[in-house]
Amino acid sequence: MRRRADGFTLIELIVVILIGSILTGVALSSFSNVQTRFAVQGAKQAYMTLHQRARSKAVESGETVILVNWASGDSVALLVRDGADSVWSDQTHFRRQFDVDVRTPGDVTYVICMTPRGYADYNCGSWGAINAASQATFADTFRVQFWLSADSASVLVLPMGQLVG
Asked: How far is CA 111 from CA 12, 80, 107, 140, in A?
């Protein structure tokens, strides 16, 4: 009796399925690492954009704009003047929006006051009383770090409000 030579044997099918599952596992692992890297870089870019927005709003409005980094809440927001009132705007929650943890030195809330000239001012112009009324630290030089799993990125904030990232 003759055997047919077309088709695959069970062993050949199992080997192909095994190789395919190994390749799929490697691809999914790489994809997860890329997603983590994109989330961390996205959070870093969002912080840098918000920092630049604070500077732009200060120059545009002619008023000091305050950028507040809350370490405990993993968020950053701008405090701007609206006539005689102060208003919170452009708030970003890094854990909720990017699933990324934000760390500052000593887990302290930092404040950066952007002047209408486009640089940081420790006196905060007309907002000078904010330091006495808050638990915030007026920033000299500090590093903001963004973490997710084992991936991280950071931004160095210099005394005049420049960013190195």
From this structure: 65, 13, 13, 10
Query: Could you give the CA distance from residue 53 to residue 123 in angstroms, rounded to a whole number?
Result: 20
Segments making up each domain of the chain, as ranges: 10-164
CATH number for region 10-164: 3.55.40.10
How far CA 148 is from CA of 33, 44, 87, 89, 105, in Å, comes to 10, 12, 31, 26, 17
Q: Which of 122, 130, 117, 45 is nearest to 79 (CA)?
A: 130
86-140: pLDDT as tens digits: 888 888 898 899 999 888 777 777 888 888 888 887 767 666 545 444 545 555 6
For the record, the structure tokens of 138 come out as: 């007026």
Name the pTM for this structure. Answer: 0.76
Contact present, 89 and 77 (Cβ < 8 Å): yes
And the tokens for 164? 């190195």
User: Residue 95 and residue 46: Cα distance in Å, rounded?
Assistant: 12
* Nearest alpha carbon to residue 113 among 46, 55, 48, 28: 55
pLDDT at 14: 93
